[in-house]
Each structure stands twice: as structure tokens, then as C-alpha cells.
Design goal:
alpha+beta; Butyryl-CoA Dehydrogenase, subunit A, domain 3; three-stranded antiparallel sheet; 53% helix; globular; binds zinc ion; transmembrane helix; PqiA-PqiB_transport; membrane
Length: 424
């Protein structure tokens, strides 16, 4: 006799608002939205045991990465090694509090809260005396923090930093660096193992069942909770399963997204005009802007790294702002054409946005590593903070956009399937 992993029979897609019936699922199964193809549920085999193993190993690797020296630096006969902890204390000691705070949140605080919440949850599933409210808090933390885990971006940042200072000094990768690589890989694996619908199903069980048919929740006078996937009645203000506030369409979504886009566009100007990094070499200080850094790498023939920085710092933020602005425009004048492609574009903007942080991390790494007074030193320029604001604002803009608006003039599965065939 086979049991489904899920108690509930229906779930509403957060991308297109369609109500889906959940078939019986077992470990290793994936379930996609029948209308837009978005993956709604992906539960791995022996998922609890795997989260426990991978999550614990990830924390262990972090402890190792904090214990030994991280990177070594030698220039003109002077050697220097820094630990991961020192990279932070140098930034704080130089008075770059915001940069230090960004690094500690992205590298340590968010991942540690994320991993410990996941481990606590998996442990609590075996333990019936655990408070349900504690479990709910943990699931909320996991969902909210996931887009802000940036350890993989930091790792790429380290590699870019190595190429950037190649002409000034020799950099060596120490023991902790390899432990840090393990930490990053294991954390990414933990993220892929965690499924929000599975967690809510385990923690809060079944939501109130409603009579449903094919089509969007809105047309059936229902609301889909975008936080847990529950299907609720139209007059609900809060989800009776996860407790999150619910709306048929996020209120003022387009207005919020547009305001955040304008804010990021405004910040983009100082981010490119002012220097992002200042290098002191043998007494003379030279500032460099984002584009200046790309051009310098290009003249030094580090083409791949120049292209990485060009894409991450220039192309991605601009493309993301343009894409979101176009999607907002499309919601004001909706058409039935190309909705699936628009959703793909939206998912892409959500996915790539955080990679723009590479340059900020590169500056932070170089600042903490290259500190030898007048001989050679690197400091962050004023553009670092405005550039970070650009990335954070565009990420928030993507999050506040409600993709369900794109489907609102769509007539449901019939129109979607006719899309390809209709020739006029
Ligand atoms: Zn969907
Ligand atoms: Zn909910």
C-alpha cells in the first residue's frame, strides 16, 4: 500500500494562480503546475535524513573554514595571511561598517539561521513535544532567507579577486578556503533538498478544503496563498495554514515594483560615476570605477574575468531593470500573447539578480586582504554602497512583482493551448 507524502488534494500555483489537483506523490517525485509548468512540489527520497546529513556537514565545514587561515598574500618579500574572521574584522576596523554588515549577513548570519532552522525542523518532525509555533517560524525563515544566501556569489568573487590582484601580488589559497568551498557546495545542496510545500504540509497539515474546478483561483472566488500554496476562500485575510496575509493579487504590486525600479535607476548613476575601489601603490592612490575595472582587466588580457564583471555589474542590472519595467508595462496593457515567455523572463530576473553582488564582494575581499600601508593597499570607494543599493532594490522590485497579473487577461488553459495554433 502506498501513501502519498501530501495530506492535501489541491494547491494553487503562485506564478499563474491556477488551482492544481495534487496526484499521490512519493519520495523522488516532482509535480509541475498543469497550466504554466512551474515546479510546485519536488520532494527527494529520504529527504529528512539527507537534509540532516548535508546540513550538519555544511555547518561543520563552516566551522573549519572559520578556524584556519583563508587566503595568503605576498608582495615584495612581505607575507600576510588572513582568516575568514579577519576579513570581517579588517573591514570593521577600517570603518566600513555597512560593507562588513553585508558580508556577515550574506556569508554567516543568513546561512546559519537557514541551516539551523532546517535542521531543527527535520529533528522536530520526529519529536511530538515541539511547539508548532517554533516550527512555523523556522519555515518562514527558510522561505524568506533563501534568496539572500549569497555564499556561491562570494566564492566566485574570491576567484575574480585573485585575478584582479595578480599583477600586484601573489595570492595563495589556504586550508580554510577549501573548507569554505565544501561549505558552499553543501549549503547549495541543502537548498535544493528543501521544498516549501513539503515543509508546510509537515508542519501545518492540510488547509481547509474547498470545492475547486479547473482554472484560476480568482475566477472561482478563491485565493491562492503565495507563501504556502493553500487555496482559501475569497474573504480570507490571512492564510489559515501558514498565517501569512493573503491577497488575490498583491496590492499595489505594480506601483511598488515601479518605485523600487526608479530608486535603483537613481542609485545606478552614482554607482557608475564614483570609484568603486581605490588602490594605493607605492604612495600614489588611483581610483577605479566599475567600467574602469572592466577595461583594465581587458587590457591585462584577463578576458574571462573582464566579461564576468561586465555581465554581473553592468549587463545584468540594466537588463533586469528593463525586463521588470517591460513586465509592469505588459500588466497595464495585458495581451494573451507570449505569457509563458514573460513568466520565463520574470523567473530569469529573479534568478540572476544576486550575481551582481560579485563586484561588491571582490572589493570587500581585496580590502581585507591587501593592507600594507603605502606599499600597496586597497580601499572601497563610495560607489560600493550605491551599487549594493541598486542590487537590493532590483531584487526587492522582482519580489514585489506579482506574476499572476500577467495571466489576468488570459482565458485559462484553453487560451494557453490555443496560443500556438491560432493564426490570424
Ligand atoms: Zn502555474
Ligand atoms: Zn499560506
Amino acid at each position: 500500500m502506498s501513501h502519498s507524502l501530501f495530506h492535501e488534494n489541491v494547491t494553487t500555483c503562485e506564478e499563474c494562480d491556477h488551482v492544481n489537483s495534487i496526484p499521490p506523490l512519493k519520495g523522488g517525485d516532482r509535480f509541475r503546475c498543469q497550466h504554466c509548468g512551474h515546479i510546485l512540489i519536488s520532494v527527494h527520497k529520504h529527504v529528512s535524513a539527507r537534509i540532516l546529513g548535508v546540513g550538519l556537514s555544511s555547518l561543520l565545514m563552516l566551522a573549519l573554514a572559520m578556524s584556519f587561515s583563508f587566503l595568503g598574500f605576498s608582495s615584495n618579500g612581505i607575507d600576510r595571511t588572513v582568516s575568514l574572521f579577519q576579513t570581517l574584522s579588517v573591514l570593521l576596523g577600517l570603518g566600513h561598517l555597512v560593507l562588513g554588515a553585508i558580508i556577515s549577513l550574506a556569508l554567516f548570519v543568513f546561512p546559519i539561521v537557514y541551516l539551523s532552522s532546517a535542521l531543527f525542523l527535520v529533528w522536530s518532525f520526529q519529536n511530538k513535544y515541539v511547539l508548532k509555533s517554533a516550527q512555523r517560524y523556522c519555515v518562514r525563515w527558510i522561505i524568506v532567507l533563501q534568496p539572500w544566501l549569497m555564499v556561491d556569489v562570494f566564492l566566485v568573487g574570491i576567484l575574480v579577486a585573485l585575478v584582479k590582484v595578480n599583477s600586484l601580488a601573489d595570492i595563495s589559497l589556504e586550508l580554510s578556503f577549501w573548507a569554505f568551498c565544501g561549505y558552499v557546495l553543501l549549503l547549495l545542496k541543502t537548498v535544493t533538498l528543501i521544498d516549501k510545500r513539503w515543509l508546510w504540509n509537515k508542519v501545518a497539515g492540510q488547509a481547509t478544503e474547498h470545492e475547486v474546478e479547473q482554472g484560476t483561483a480568482k475566477k472561482q472566488n478563491l485565493i491562492g496563498c503565495h507563501f504556502c500554496g493553500a487555496t482559501l476562500s475569497r474573504d480570507a485575510h490571512h492564510c489559515d495554514r501558514c498565517g501569512h496575509s493573503v491577497h488575490s493579487r498583491r496590492p499595489n504590486s505594480l506601483m511598488t515594483t515601479s518605485a523600487l525600479l526608479i530608486a535603483s535607476l537613481v542609485m545606478y548613476i552614482p554607482a557608475n560615476v564614483f570609484p568603486i575601489m581605490q588602490t594605493t601603490f607605492l604612495g600614489s592612490t588611483e581610483p577605479s570605477t566599475i567600467m574602469g575595472g572592466v577595461l583594465l582587466l581587458w587590457t591585462l588580457e584577463s578576458y574571462p574575468v573582464a566579461l564576468i564583471i561586465l555581465f554581473a555589474s553592468v549587463v545584468i542590472p540594466i537588463a533586469k531593470m528593463l525586463a521588470l519595467a517591460w513586465l509592469c508595462w505588459q500588466c497595464c496593457y495585458p495581451s494573451q500573447r507570449l505569457t509563458k515567455q514573460k513568466i520565463k523572463l520574470y523567473k530569469m530576473t529573479e534568478l540572476v539578480g544576486r550575481w551582481s553582488m560579485i563586484d561588491v564582494f571582490v572589493v570587500a575581499i581585496l580590502t581585507s586582504l591587501v593592507q600594507m600601508g603605502n606599499l600597496v593597499s586597497i580601499f572601497p570607494g563610495p560607489a560600493v554602497l550605491s551599487f549594493t543599493a541598486v542590487i537590493v532594490f532590483t531584487m526587492l522590485a522582482a519580489m514585489s512583482f506579482d506574476p499572476r497579473l500577467l495571466w489576468d487577461k488570459d482565458d485559462g488553459p484553453k487560451a494557453a493551448s490555443l496560443e500556438g495554433e491560432k493564426v490570424e
